[in-house]
Amino acid sequence: MKETPKISKIIYAMSISLDGFIEDANGDLSWSYPDEELNKHFNEQEALIDIHLYGRKLYETMAAYWPIVDEDVNATELEREYANIWKSMPKVVFSKTLKKVDWNSRLVSENIAEEVNKLKEQSGKIMSVSGAGIAASFTKLGLIDEYWLYVNPVVLGNGKPMFQQLQSKINLKLIETRTFRSGVVLLRYVNSNSK
Q1: CA nearest 182: which of 12, 45, 11, 15?
Q2: What homologous superfamily does CATH list for 9-191?
Q3: For residue 191, how many other CB atoms are within 10 A of its CB?
Q4: Nearest to 116 by CA among 105, 127, 100
Q5: What pLDDT shows up at residue 9?
Q6: What is the pLDDT of residues 115-124, one digit of tens each?
Q7: Do 171 and 193 form a contact (C-beta atoms < 8 A)?
Q8: Residues in the chain with pLDDT < 50?
Q9: Is 105 left (phi over 0), alpha (psi -120 to 50) or beta?
Q10: Which helix (H) or strand (E) holds 42?
């Protein structure tokens, strides 16, 4: 009997404020800095991911910090662990302006949908899209299979929203909730409309 291939999926996971922002009006993210419990959870989740999908801005931020964490005397053991996971993980960076990427990364400068659909054809791959701009493009194209919202107990009032303007609604089904000691609540949804 032939085994049914496992379906690949794309996850969009973000820390957000109660009012739906991923950073405040000044671009500050310090309100979402994880405690030890949440940091450990993030590391465990990262270990399940096969490929990271990045936009230019977040890739540059990550590549400027995580490869040199070992030089930071204030870095925790969990941060060092995350840095090692990040450096070794395959990454696809979508950008029309970057000329070169490092740290086990591959650059794609055109046709996002075609590239992502090729990746999704790989049996059982779990991919994580990171960066608000690229995630908005993926959302509009119906490429995101799961949304993981880490809702922080803070109201920012203004800033960059997790979900940018869409042409149509997204039907979601809640499949998991988890409350952390810090008051952060994970809401995990499956996208009923994903391709």
Answers
A1: 15
A2: Dihydrofolate Reductase, subunit A (3.40.430.10)
A3: 20
A4: 127
A5: 92
A6: 888 888 887 8
A7: yes
A8: none
A9: beta
A10: helix 36-46
Measure the CA–CA gap between 185 and 61, rounded to whole angstroms. Answer: 25
- What pLDDT was estimated at residue 5? 57
**Structure-block tokens of residue 98:** 């970057």
Exposed e or buried b for every residue in 118-130, given b needs 16+ CB within 10 A? ebbeeeebbbbbb
Give, in order, the Cα–Cα distances in Å from 125 to each of 36, 110, 113, 131, 187. 28, 22, 16, 20, 22
- Find how far residue 42's CA is from the centre of its chain: 11
Phi, psi values for residue 156, rounded to 5°: -90, -25
Q: How far is CA 62 from CA 57, 78, 167, in A?
A: 9, 16, 30
Measured CA to CA, the distance from residue 173 to residue 26 in angstroms comes to 33
pLDDT of residue 37: 97
Question: What CA–CA distance (Å, rounded) separates 28 from 26?
Answer: 6
17 contacts 161 by C-beta, under 8 angstroms: no
Strand arrangement of the beta sheet that strand 185-191 belongs to:
105-108, 91-94, 51-55, 126-130, 9-17, 146-152, 185-191, 172-179
Q: Which tokens belong to 5?
A: 């291939």
Tokens of 123: 């049996």
